[in-house]
Amino acid sequence: MPSRNNENQFAGTYRRGAIIRIQMHNFLTYTDAEVRPGAKLNIVVGPNGTGKSSVVCAICLCLGGSHKSLDRAEKYKDFVKKGANSGYVEVDLHEAGRNDSTLTIRMDISVDSNNAHWKVNGMQSSRKKVNDLMRDLAIQVDNLCCFLAQDRVVKFASLDSIKLLQETEKAVNPQLHSWHMKLIEQKKAEKKLTTQTEELEKSLTSFTQQKECLEQDVKRMRDRDQIKEKIDTLQKKALWLKYGNLREASKAIKVRYKAAANDLQKIEEELAPLKKAKEAAQAHFDKLKREELNLAKSEKAVNAEKRKVLDNIEAQQNRIDNAWGEVDEIEREVSQLEEKREKLQQEIRTTEDYLKELPEEKEINANLKNILEEQRELNRKRRKFNNEKEDINREMYNLRAKITSATQRMQQERSNKQTSLARGGKKHVEIKQWIERNRHKFKGEILGPLYNEIKVSNPLHAKYVENAVGKARLQYYLVDNKEDWSTLPQQIRSNTGQKVTVASVTRIDDRTARHIDLKGLQDESGVSMQWLDQVIDADRLVMQGLKDIARVHKIAVTQEEVARDKVEKVMQKKRGGPGVPHLFNGNDRLRVTFSSYSDDVSSSETLLKKAELLQEEEDDQIAQYQLEIKECRSKLRKLESKKHEVEQQNEKLNKPIKEGAIQTRDLRASMKKIKAVKNKLTILRRQLAQLEHDGDGEMKKRRIY
After folding, report:
1. What is the model's pTM?
2. Rounded Cα distance, 594 and 49, in Å
């Protein structure tokens, strides 16, 4: 790095607003330090805990960044080195002042007032004015793409692709982000107009098609009206033509009528003598007719006698023909009866042979009896399993009812005493109430937020646990089912509008592997210690979640604040050596880390924050409710395991029961078949006997004359 005396020889290579000097006094791990970055890329290298992140924090705070955005401390006074009353950071920016002069920004921190004050080129200023200057210089200390503090890496990693692009655009050029947002709005407007245009075009096409259809209908209506008018005209013309024709015919008929009347009169005059001659001939004809009738009567009597003789002859001939026909019919019937008798005898022999091939009824009945006995025994076992399953379900239902009742009573007790659930905000009260109402919609257990499921014995332990786990992670919810892990946040978001973080614990390992002899360290150093998970009272699921999230089983804690010289004795000095690498002592958090590339060791000491979410153990009544719920849940898990075993045993019975049912059905079908064959044989024998009896009787009745 360049020295102070050679500062200006590199000035020409710096960009406007570049940092050319950083001075820190009583800031975090530094008593007095000055850093002079180069004009290009600057890299700070060193073991853990040597103050690399402190330089980054100094730049961020001095240039107007929020101390809360660093996620390192909640108050300005926490950035002052322990034991000092004040501290400051001073940063020089190249050609950032008036007339391109160097701009010096200084931030003073006071422990007593817990405030920070800024000066620009020695003049009193404010954080807002400093932020305005940084905005003019395009310096964005709150943009994670430009300025990423060590404690904000997790937040940067959680950014989605859209947010990351927005932050990158702001880092490249603040106007670029505004142009991008305008472009997005214009794209949305274009899409909306395109959609409206497509809808209008569809409407226009539909209206055009309707118009074409209507035009065809109008044309057809006009043609119809024209045809109708033409039909009316033609019908009128046809009537007139018909009237004219009828009129001419009427005239011709009248002329012919007159002529016929004249001719009739002349004929009557000529027929008068002929009428008289006709009357005389008629009288003679009547006389001849009467004579003819007398002769006909005589002839009729002779013919009747003749017909009588002929009828007798014909009747005798018919009787002869009928007798010969009856003989032929009897011969045919005898032949048919013989064929039918032979057919029945053949069918009887076939049926008897088939009956011999079938198994014996006694054997079938014995097998059927054995199978039915086995089926009854299997069904008895199934009823036993079903009754046992019903008892388990009934007991599980009663346990769930007890859990619900105890939970409701505990919630009522807590609501009366303003419990710790409200400490995390009203949203957790709303979320917890929604979960209790809708617990039946999920497959596994749901616990949380974590701070509401944890009990500690004293405020010191509460501070240890909250600093080890973290305020944000203490607001996690835990599930023991992967499907619930994916659906629970969505359900809570859609029903309550709240965002939550859900962790999944699908495997609970009660074994705790520790490779450090804590008891031996206590005896040797005289420091009373225990592991952090040993001071926590929580459900097994919650404890496993704390182990997975914060590794509480790897952190040692003291029972009370111990002198620093004693603490040094229990801290690990080398990799694999005796001692603890992570210890909470009173208000301090001590950690020892080893380099991955060498045996270098670095230590860090952090001030513990006051516990806000955790509190001391609740009163005996709530503890009793919690114990009752815990016992019921333990019994419920055992019953679920027992129910699963019963269902498996019951499932094993399905196959033999099904096979027995099939065998029973087959045996009964065989019995039914044997009875049907025997019935058929009896019927055939009866038909044969009846056939022989009916044939003999019919032959006796018939006689040929």
Report:
1. 0.35
2. 11
